[in-house]
Structure formats: C-alpha cells, structure tokens
Write a sequence for this structure.
C-alpha cells in the first residue's frame, strides 16, 4: 500500500506503469484519476485544496486498509494533492491491483466513495468574482450506504 | 489542548489553531465554552449539523469525551476526491 499526500503534480502514466509492473500474480489493475473541472460558467480561475496534515494520511490509510480487508487485493495506491490547482490539473488518483477485475473495480469505487467524504480535504473554488468553499453533496454521503 | 479549524470554520474564527485551557468534559461542552467567548465563535458554531469534529485526528461525534485528548479539530463536511 502506498499513500501520498502531496502538493506536487504527479505523472499518471509513470505512476500507473510503476504500480502495474510490480505484480506478476495480479490479473487486473484499475486506476481512477480525478481532474479539476471548470465551472459551468467556464470561469474557474483555480481550485485550492486544504487538508489536515497528519489526519489526512491516517484517514487514507484506514480507508485503504478497509478496502484490502474487504476485497482480494494485491496492492493499493492513493495519491491526493493539496494546494492551488487549475482546471484540467489532476487532483488525485487511486489504483488497485487484484487477481480478478471485479475486486479491482469495486475496491477502486469504494476508495473513491470514502475518500470523498471521510478524508479531511476541503475544496475552494476561486473565480474572478470571489471564492466559495465547495459544499459536500448529500449523494456523496448516500454513496457510502451501498457498502 | 490544541483546537484546530479548517476551511470556512478557520476563516470565520480567524485562526487555524489555538491552545485552549478548558475544563470541558465533552466536545459539546467545549463548543459551548467557545461560543460564550466571542461572537466569531458563536457564528462559526451556530449550526452544528453543518460541522464535523475530529478528536486526536479521528472523526467522532459532539458527545465524545475529551478525557486525555490532545487535539480537537472542527471543520465542514469533507470534499475530497
């Protein structure tokens, strides 16, 4: 398992390739990448991501450990950035390795659902007109009930 | 103990972290103490349903005990991913 909370950009191809190459007994690698999406008005200047150093890493490790306990996984990777990002920038990625694809897909979805509302990150959207904290969505909380 | 604030809670209270000398036994009691201090705290803690709390970096509830606790953090619902 590797968890990285970082300000720096990451290289999706290099991370995915390195993650995938380490496992000879894993038949399935799933990766998901979250990207900063512009607002409907097209005026997002940047997104600033705040986090809780210390708790963030612990929360992500706990979520990843839960996934490893629930599914047959060979490995888990979580990278999540903080700081100022621009539309189109990659915010985060998860990768899962499993002998079979069902475990890899489901575990990746589980990781995403949990890290959206149980890992201490907060997004703020900055436009020319001002800045707004992104509100948590009820559907993100509801998504946890399926697990 | 150290009290930390994040996102709009931090902005409303005006500091990211402070040391609080308190006799509060639970998070809820600490919130009441802070609200009684100054208007900026009363404003930040006006609607607890809009807030989440972590005690020693673990998510918990407002009725959690503060016995032996070193760090309490208040923040809005998280928006990772």
């Amino acid at each position: 398992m590797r968890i990285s909370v970082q300000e720096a950009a990451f290289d999706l191809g290099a991370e995915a390739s390195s993650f995938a190459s380490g496992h000879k007994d894993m038949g399935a690698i799933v990766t998901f990448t979250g990207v900063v999406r512009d607002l409907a008005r097209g005026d997002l200047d940047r997104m600033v991501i705040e986090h809780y150093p210390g708790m963030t890493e612990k929360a992500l490790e706990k979520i990843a450990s839960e996934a490893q306990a629930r599914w047959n996984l060979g490995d888990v990777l979580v990278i999540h950035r903080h700081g100022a990002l621009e539309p189109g920038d990659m915010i985060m990625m998860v990768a899962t390795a499993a002998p079979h694809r069902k475990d890899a897909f489901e575990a990746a979805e589980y990781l995403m659902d949990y890290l959206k509302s149980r890992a201490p990150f907060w997004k703020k959207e900055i436009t020319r007109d001002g800045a707004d904290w992104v509100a948590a969505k009820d559907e993100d909380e509801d998504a946890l009930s399926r697990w | 103990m150290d009290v930390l604030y994040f996102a709009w809670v931090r902005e409303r209270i005006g500091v990211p972290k402070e040391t609080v000398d308190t006799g509060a036994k639970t998070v809820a009691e600490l919130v009441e103490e802070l609200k009684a201090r100054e208007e900026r705290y009363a404003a930040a803690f006006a609607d607890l349903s809009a807030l989440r709390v972590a005690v020693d970096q673990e998510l918990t509830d407002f009725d959690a005990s503060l016995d032996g606790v070193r760090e309490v953090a208040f923040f809005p619902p998280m928006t990772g991913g």
